[in-house]
Amino acid sequence: METTLMLPMVLPPTVVGFFLIVIFGKNSMAGKAIEWLFKQPIIFTWWAAVIASIVVAFPLMYQSAKSGFQGINLDIEEAARVDGANEWRIFLFISIPLASKALISGSILSFARALGEFGATLMFAGNIPGKTQTIPTAIYIAIDSGNMKMAWMWVISIVILSFLILLTVRVKQE
After folding, report:
1. CA distance 165 to 157
2. Given this model, what pLDDT does residue 44 score?
3. Mean pLDDT for the chain?
4. What angle (nearest 5°) sits at the alpha carbon of residue 69, between those of residues 117 and 172?
5. Where does the sequence pass through the membrane (predicted)?
6. Which whole number is the average pLDDT over 113-120?
7. How far is CA 49 from each of CA 3, 76, 114, 136, 137, rounded to the nearest angstrom?
8. Residue 172: is its pLDDT beyond 70?
9. Residue 84 CA: distances (Å) to CA of 77, 80, 91, 115
10. What one-character DSSP code corresponds to residue 94?
11. What angle do CA 11, 17, 22 make, to 5 degrees?
12. Distance CA 137, CA 35 (A)
């Protein structure tokens, strides 16, 4: 199961996008259910961009959370059990706070990865300006249309934002 959860980290983003189309496309069970429930398909919507970004970024969050929870001293959780805490309370009030640095770092790194997602998003959500266009697809379109000024604006924006995100992770870890 863990290997499956980690696949988006190593698969080309277009392969992830392909799988998302297969899983959520109009002919799939999930796609039909979504279309029946929401009266529209999910493909080529902003929800598709969100799903693609989450799927591609998930392995970073998973690894961070896993490391954070594995780093917890089990004696602390056991002491809470002895004192009468149920598993939910232990998780909520002991495990999560003790793993919080890893969870925060994982969230920030996942967000940063999702922000830069291109391939899966382009395949699954498309590039509809004002609807599903992301910064990476906006850069691609700007370059493709010869608008280097716009491309540079987006590139500088994403570099500054990415730098600030990584700086935040570094500060949180110290």
Report:
1. 12
2. 93
3. 93
4. 60
5. 5-24, 44-62, 90-112, 151-169
6. 90
7. 24, 41, 9, 12, 11
8. no
9. 11, 6, 13, 43
10. I
11. 115
12. 26
- What is the CB neighbour count within 10 angstroms for residue 126? 16
- Summarize the confidence of residues 77-85 as an average pLDDT: 94
Q: Are 113 and 40 in contact (CB under 8 A)?
A: no
The C-alpha atoms of residue 30 and residue 18 are separated, in whole angstroms, by: 15
Cβ(90)–Cβ(72) below 8 Å: no
CA distance 117 to 51: 11
Please say if the pLDDT value at position 173 is more than 70.
no
- The alpha carbon dihedral of 108, 109, 115, 119 has a sign of negative
Q: Looking at residues 10-34, what average pLDDT do you find? A: 94
Q: What is the mean pLDDT of residues 133-147?
A: 94
Q: How far is CA 104 from CA 61, 69, 101, 113, 160, in A?
A: 9, 13, 5, 14, 20
Question: Which residue type does 170 have?
Answer: R
The token pair at 80 is 């809470």
